[in-house]
Amino acid sequence: MVYFNTCICVILFMFLSYIFAKTYQLSGYQIRSYLKSVLELKLSFGDKNRLIFTKRMIRFSFLLFIIMFGMFFVVNYFINNIYLKLFDIILLFLLLPLFIVLTHYIILPLELLIKKHFMAKATRKLRKKKIIKIGITGSYGKTSTKNILVSMLEKNYKVCATPKNYNTEMGLSKTILNDLDDHDIFVAEMGARHIGDIKILAKMVEPNYGIITTIGPQHLETFKSIEVIENTKFELAENLKPDGVMVFNGDSQSSRKLYDRFKGEKYLACDKEGYSYADNIKMDSQGSTFDLFLNGQKLEVKTKLLGKCNIDNIVTASTLAHLLGITYKDIISAIKDLSPSKHRLELMKNNYCTIIDDSYNCNIVGSKEALDVLSRFEGRKIVITPGMVELGNEQSQANFKLGTLIADVADYIIIMNNVNKNEILSGAISHNFNREHIFFAETRKKQKEILELITTKDCVVLFENDLPDNYK
Fold it and tell me: What pTM does this model have?
């Protein structure tokens, strides 16, 4: 009977712990972020982001199960008073969020050891390869710039690149160990949430070339200031090989500042005083055309990509591609064949309406670009957004600003996130937006119902940002 009662309690506990475990995983296994989500009740209800049972999560869940089995067994075996037993069981359930923390710290040494092992193994493999290594970092545009660069380099080289937005120690290690073979070039996207993150990745890869894209107020909750972000991104330049070459996106004030700071061989992109820039930019529903000036040569190019940010990414990638020997003809060809990255200003059309999917964007710079693209379309314009998060003290101001920007372009707004709804609403109203054209939808079902009411033929719907479901 003791074992039966214990098993029932543990099964119920593990079932209820799903929400907290998913929140823990979505927090990047960072206890501080996890506890903040718990305290602010930003828990992972819903099914947009399911708990992924990676090897790490399987180990974590198994240890959590063992701990709770022991706890409930002690209660059921040693406590005979039914009221005291019931009180203890209820207390254990109430302490569920803290058991996630306890399990994290118990298993943390093992996880660090596993990560260190895979990083060392990947580093050894990479150093045995006589290949060109490229590191890409920045606040925005890392993945897009990487994908564009790879499409250009593949004209002449066999390229291995970190897939999707794999930009952590384990993401790079997994790519190197599983995908790197007889390639000529390895391209590594490098992300960061804390000081020193880029340094670790750069020392692991030892890049011959580096790109710093646009820098902005991303992850301010951990970085605290734009200066700290700049210094963290500059860790890539500081840890290049001694004869390494850097390319900087000069359209970004912070990146331009780092260009001036770097003393090695460097090239400035997206700046008329630099090595490359775009001019005569035109956009419509079919894509973009512009003149690409590259090392003094004017190239007339066409792309299916939309937005000034994508054009900047193209110019930045073209700079390094040209430095690595890709011809002007092949660069033009690669640009023409580019397809929009999934959920990044991705255009989808049907017989009834046009959808601009920019749901992977989460910053004010990208939002401005998306709204600029939206403004170029005819018909009723609808924006669906939950706003932006992880901006620290600047979050309220940024979402107020987003509301003003949307108000200047859209006819209707659907706000999906309770966290930011007042700021977006206030921003829109401050620009005389019709309050009756602003709707709130806490679920996708409600969003769909509202859309059915306000969509018309030939309307344009912009999905701007899409937060994990631990934000409500």
Answer: 0.82
